[in-house]
Design goal:
The protein is mainly beta. It is built from one helix and eight strands; from the N terminus they run H-E-E-E-E-E-E-E-E.
Length: 143
Amino acid sequence: MAGINSLLTSYNFGQLGSIYLDKNSVPITPPVGKVIIAITFLLDTSLSALLPQTKLKVDGTVSSDEYGKAISSEGVQFIGTEASHNLTANNETTLEGAGGVAVDSSNVFPKGMTIYGRWRSLTIASAAGLGRGALIAYLGDAE
């Protein structure tokens, strides 16, 4: 059998486009109704902002006009510049784990690494000693 068995699968695995970024301090956001579902780092790169999708639907902006059901109420959280699954030890629930910390500009993602999740925006940090970063952000549906 040849071809794609499920368009939904391809839409959630980067078949809806990509964004290239090699400028520090310039945020990127996906189009309305889309999220970043994977990030491949082309150079050693540090991020100053990595904003996860927090609702089941987003409008493509980083302002407060997200809408829909909170993803965290489904037990789904993604790494970002705010900690995910960061309860203290022995306070874990069926929806949230413990020990997670935030990504900050001191964290360097090495060239060639790909991370997966659901983000609504990201910004490459202008970190001393790293020069510029470079990455490709792959897009998927926000739902």
